[in-house]
Amino acid sequence: MRIASARTWFIMKVAVVAAEMAPYAKAGGLADVIGALPAELQGCGALVSVVIPGYKCALAALRTENIGGEQRVMIGERLEHFSLRTGIGPAGVPVFLIMHDGYFGRDGIYGEHGQDYSDSIERFVFFSRAAALALGEVVKPDLVHAHDWHVAALPVLIRADSALRMQWDRTASLFTIHNLAFQGLTDARDFRLLNIDRSYLSVGCLEFFGRMNLMKGAIVMADGVSTVSPTYAREVSSDPSYGFGLEGVLREKGSRFVGILNGADYHEWNPATDQHIAQRYTPDQPAGKSVCARALRQRIGLPIDSKRALVGMVSRITAQKGFDLLVDALDELLALDIDLVILGNGEAEFVTRLQRAQQEKPDRIRISTAFDNDLAHQIQAGCDMFLMPSRFEPCGLTQMYALKYGTAPVVRATGGLADTITEFDSVSGSGNGFVFEAYQPAELIATMRRALQTFSDRPAWERLMANCFVADFSWSAAAARYMDFYRQLIDQRARHAS
Ligand code: ADP
Ligand code: GLC
Fold first, then answer.
1. Is 489 within the bounds of a domain?
2. Distance from C-alpha of 351 to C-alpha of 367, rounded to nearest angstrom
3. How far, CA to CA in Å, does 227 sit from each of 176, 244, 389, 450?
4. pLDDT tens per residue, range 24-66
5. Ligand 2 proximity of 28 Cβ (cutoff 6 Å)
6. Range of the domain at 42
7. Residue 131: CB within 6 Å of ligand 2?
8. If you measure from the C-alpha of residue 396 to the centroid of ligand 2, how many angstroms do you get, rounded to a whole number?
């Protein structure tokens, strides 16, 4: 008989630290995860708190109050002051905001007018250190869960800083990678911002080809590392074109590196309850979807009575998301029986090409470069298909949302897309979308042709929509997996510390 150790069953205190949290501060999927996972963990019995920067937008969206006095941290040679505010987040989860007017009292999260702030490394090293100090005093968690490069300094500082080390000795740390393309890679001179022993700027920790790499430091120093889908975990630890040079350190982590598929937040993304769409609908009564389609066409200025399939994208417009492939395939794509609506902002080269196509074919393609959550929901509800030709995709949340809205995903089989979407087979009636492997325009076009063939066969399409509707990627499975991993890491830490 296996007897669980006493530690396995205590009430676990978990602190989640991240640069985004929906609905208070959102730039992409990271925010959706931090907006949903803590509440779900709380439902599993953990005591969870979240720490985010006190951005202007977060203060405007969340009622907060000041707690404690002013605190101080050293960032390089400078003494920086901060204070702490707290508010109540989703499901009553406490949210702590690190208040520093110079770093966070700005209009943007990462930048403004398409330009990143030039002091990103310093802002987030400060945030990581301030969060470590505040959490050590206010929460004293059993496990700290840090997300993405912005807070990669935290798992390093709590082990490497002599003042923090003792306080954090019994706290386990988990670092989750949402995107390995952004590593917090910077000039080695920025190492001074961390105020830790010079030995940590070595190839075994933060040093990366003569530069400093915060994400590498976190992977080495965190007790556990995870990423947001099993397939991406395999891709980044085996293939340099996915691992961006960190595949070796990830492999060295062994069983302490895992892939846990994100969930979808069905409180926010559900056509039965969605406040942003023209008419709510359910799998049993899907008629509202065509009302949503007409309303969407009207809003964006596409012909309302078109019989063509409406294909949507809601995405950062970058090479990661497959926009180089899309623009290469664009003429051929628009020669098919589709209309295309794209919501997203990003690289000027792609945006300009798409805007030119819109000028040339205003009845066939619409692009909006706003950040517009309303329109994001309306595209999910109003389209027939949802396109994600990503070059790489750590998880991808929008394909999961599309399924819930009965909108068939057309995706490249990579990362989380490979873990959530399977090719529809009209003979067996299985599958929930259309999938291609090779990153080539011809593959994209061939896949879109297969989708259109099914679209023209109404019974087959209805079967496909039914398969989409029943797909269940709710957060409960992911939260249970995180809880198991947390327990494992806390037990390991306890053994190490005792
Ligand atoms: P990533 O995090 O890589 O950008 P995800 O699919 O994980 O991709 O999540 C993207 C999130 O950001 C989704 O909630 C999507 O609806 C939202 N989103 C992306 N671009 C926009 C935009 N221009 N306006 C509104 N929401 C957007
Ligand atoms: C990143 C990834 C995306 C993932 C999201 C949330 O932004 O690009 O694939 O869904 O994080 O984990």
1. yes
2. 8
3. 5, 15, 20, 32
4. 999 999 999 999 999 999 999 999 999 999 999 999 999 999 9
5. yes
6. 2-263+476-497
7. no
8. 5
